[in-house]
What does this fold into?
Amino acid sequence: MKPVGAVAGASLAERVRVAVAAAAEHADEVDRDGRFPSEALTALKAERLMSVAVPPEMGGEGASLGEIAWICSELGSACASAGMVFAMHQINMANLIDCGMDGAWHRELMARTVAEQLLFASATTEAGVGGDLRHSICAVEADGERFTLAKAAPVISYGEQADAIFATARRDADAPSSDQVLCVLMKDQCELDRFVNWDALGMRGTCSHGYRLKAEAALEQILPMPFADIAAESMVAVSHLLWSSVWAGVASDALARAQAFVTAEAKKQPGSIPPGAARLAEAFTRYRMIEGAIRECLERWEEMKADSDASPTLSLALAMNALKVCVSTTALEVVDETMMICGLQGYKNGGPYSLGRHLRDIHSARLMIGNDRILSAAGQMLLIQRQPRRA
Ligand SMILES: Cc1cc2nc3c(=O)[nH]c(=O)nc-3n(C[C@H](O)[C@H](O)[C@H](O)COP(=O)(O)OP(=O)(O)OC[C@H]3O[C@@H](n4cnc5c(N)ncnc54)[C@H](O)[C@@H]3O)c2cc1C
It folds into this structure.
């Protein structure tokens, strides 16, 4: 298979810059109209960034999670919705790569993603289960080599734009709610009947409408690993790292706007320190904590991946949960602080210091798998963790 590599010799940074510029140019319009960030996605596809994580032997570039996280953060700083769409796609891609290398159908899907720059969405949330990733009501109904699935999914981001949807379900109709599998469903195998419209406070461009999903597909499309293992060994950690990177991007752009505001104030009165400067330093301090927390978790993750004998420990799971709770909370504090710095210039829509979109987008962070739910799971883990201070 011909390796794809970089586009016409452009570096990864140059290609990301093109996509980020497209995302930034349309961010306000995407937010205002609650529409899909199609310009950003067109640019990401043109720059072949949808398949950047696919292993080289499958035609991709084998980008590390650190590189993907960096792209998420750059996109998030331009348009949180575009950043989150890219992050969610890459989370599904990580599942496909981690579990699909031995299956002909899954390998073919990776190759197709390289050739066609496919977009993956996910349907884990289910009516009656909410954000409890590890339980499903719907079940795979097998018939010979094929299966059907019907799922009431109150949130599937960009379901109508996606080329494939990764959906959790019980293994079969007799399986308990926690005995789940992850089904990869192609667009032409799904019927999506929209029953809830996404008209939300923020993240409006993710188009996270609710659907009654019906699908019919081949059994070989189901990822071979039990979903319990996919979640524990990779999906939760990758999700928390990539979501956090998007939120860090939102906070960094808010901080940049506040810094520009304080700098402009300082120029108006040379020799004096503007009143917002101390708050700016405080917001910057919080932002540094976010950056540090993401970097530390990424390092731990890469270290674990580099050791073929290692698998995620309870301590790593606790660290990834702490990361999600910490970044989602602290990024909101940073954006809130920047609003205090910019005052009405931040509160008004439009203009270089406007922060309304950032504040609305970042409010989704604590809810995207509710922090209370994550904390209550982490609390249970801490009961059996021997050295919590070393988590
Ligand atoms: C921008 C965005 C995009 C999304 N995209 C998708 C997508 O593409 N696909 C998808 O499947 N889902 C998606 N989701 C949904 C997300 O993954 C969660 O499922 C969803 O945010 C949970 O919604 P909820 O608050 O109604 O959930 P619930 O989990 O039902 O929780 C309701 C409330 O109860 C609390 N709670 C629940 N259980 C506990 C507990 N054990 N202890 C303490 N408190 C608890 C929660 O904290 C919350 O306040 C998206 C969410 C957002 C914000």
About this structure: The beta strands are 120-123, 141-143, 146-153, 164-170, 180-186, 190-196, 210-218. Residues 328 and 365 are 5 Å apart (CA to CA).
